[in-house]
Design goal:
This protein has about 325 residues and is of the alpha/beta class. The protein is about 45% helix and about 5% strand. It is built from 11 helices and 7 strands. It has a 5-stranded parallel beta sheet with strand order 4-5-3-6-7, sandwiched between helices. It has a two-stranded antiparallel sheet with strand order 1-2. Strand 4, helix 4 and strand 5 form a beta-alpha-beta unit. It is globular, with a radius of gyration of 25 Å. About 5% of the residues have low confidence.
């Protein structure tokens, strides 16, 4: 009888100990499992394909462009394609969209299009400028969504997203992009935005209003696309494109279903700069402390949303460490 009671007591003690262990699971173990789950989700997002790899047909006749003039790479041409699906290349203005288009055209041999018709880009070899977005002849369509457009209500923003259209979302540090965009608006004739502005050009009410509007629109462009896009979406960070252009470009090509041409990538690796990679006042700091606080909060919200939706960790901009 005593042995039976002792056995029952032992079973109860073991069951209680097991329950406590389940409840008091080491936080480090939970954190490790959560990190593995996030890494798995991020890997799935990074490997997402809008289209399976396919043979890409190019037009044999008509306009063509040779992006590289040296003897080893001069044979590579960029041409219009056929039966290409509609894909947006979406970014806030002055976030490296044109440079990414140059990289994509060089890597794929296919022209890209734009919602705008920029004569300077057309003369520089971007022959898809002004092409009908529905022509099915271009690889991607440059767009800034609803940024700086009058219709900013919720319905207008949703319609600007076009949620059933696959997209590449290019994100850049807003503190730099907003300055570059201000230069574009202040010097509209300087298509490359390389002209330096004086400090006085930033110390006025017009720039203060620009910062307030563009901080909100930078965040809205990212969050609208992340939350509403039902079609495949590839997120690319400009800062990571800078540090590993060929590696990041391979991922975009995979997303677009374009076979990698190693010979073209080899040539592109020696001609990365292109003609429209801009420079200028980007390291200048014209922001007030309140504007920096608002920018920081907007960036943190977008970064948090990216993590929640399973994208790989976004880069931390260097100025974030300096803020409390």
């Amino acid at each position: 009888m005593r042995s039976g009671r002792a056995g029952l007591l032992l079973l109860l003690l073991l069951a209680g100990f097991s329950a406590v262990m389940r409840v008091q699971r080491p936080s480090s173990l939970r954190q490790a499992e959560e990190a593995r789950d996030r890494e798995g989700a991020a890997a799935a997002k990074d490997g997402l394909q809008a289209f399976g790899e396919r043979e890409v047909e190019r037009e044999r006749e008509g306009r063509a462009w040779r992006p590289w003039g040296d003897s080893d790479c001069a044979r590579h041409e960029t041409r219009f394609g056929r039966a290409l699906p509609r894909v947006l290349l979406l970014s806030f203005p002055c976030s490296g969209n044109t440079w990414l288009r140059y990289l994509l055209e060089g890597a794929s041999g296919l022209f890209t299009a734009s919602e705008f018709a920029d004569e300077e880009l057309l003369r520089a070899g971007f022959l898809g400028e002004g092409e009908d977005p529905g022509s099915e002849r271009t690889l991607v369509l440059k767009s800034h969504g609803s940024v700086d457009k009058s219709n900013r209500d919720l319905v207008g923003r949703y319609e600007a997203v076009g949620p059933r259209t696959p997209a590449v979302l290019l994100l850049r540090d807003p503190r730099r992009a907003i300055i570059s965009f201000w230069k574009l608006l202040s010097r509209p004739g300087d298509g490359r935005h390389t002209a330096q502005l004086s400090p006085q050009d930033f110390q006025n009410n017009a720039f203060r209003g620009h910062v307030e509007r563009m901080t909100s629109q930078w965040e809205g462009l990212a969050t609208d696309r992340l939350l509403w896009n039902s079609a495949p979406l590839h997120v690319l960070h400009y800062e990571r494109l800078l540090t590993d252009p060929i590696g990041r470009l391979r991922k975009v090509l995979r997303f677009l279903g374009v076979p990698v041409d190693e010979a073209r990538l080899k040539c592109l690796a020696t001609h990365l700069e292109g003609s429209f990679k801009r420079s200028g006042n980007e390291d200048f700091d014209p922001y007030t402390e309140e504007e920096k606080r608002r920018l920081s909060l907007a960036v943190k919200r977008v970064q948090r949303l990216l993590r929640l939706m399973g994208y790989s960790d976004p880069p931390l901009y260097e100025w974030q460490d300096a803020l409390p």
